[in-house]
Specification:
Layout: H1 9-22, H2 26-48, H3 71-79, H4 98-107, H5 109-146, H6 148-154
Helix pairs in contact: 2-3
Length: 155
Amino acid sequence: IPEITADHPEVQAMVEGAMKTVSFSEETMLSEMYAEALEGAIAELMKTNKDRFPGASERGGWVVDNYPLSEDHWSALSEKRLLPDIVVCLKDTQNDGACILRRAYLASRNENNSNILEGPTDEALEKKEDDAGEGMEDTLTSEEDQSPAAAEEKG
């Protein structure tokens, strides 16, 4: 039986085939999964909601927020013939997006503020409890040292 090495033509062919199989990146696979999920959701909605509103076309009229995210996602949608008619891209380029950040903060400021204020308060209470526990242990230890039974044991 001849020895088979990495240079053997059959081994080379197997490795090349495996590399082609694995060449689909995780991003590509995820993109295809997203496109399939979107296709399934649209098909299901079209079955259950045939009369969306008077005069609506059979296909279209969908708003997909924050998707497609990448070139791979666009390609996956293109393969499934699910390309959007209109794409709207909103960007806040002034002051590194400060306007959107401010609006997001204001929308949840009560929750954010309470979380910010609770953190130090909780930490302070824990520290106070720990300090009080240590102080209590010190008091108990010194009381034991001063008790008559402790004096007899020492003497």
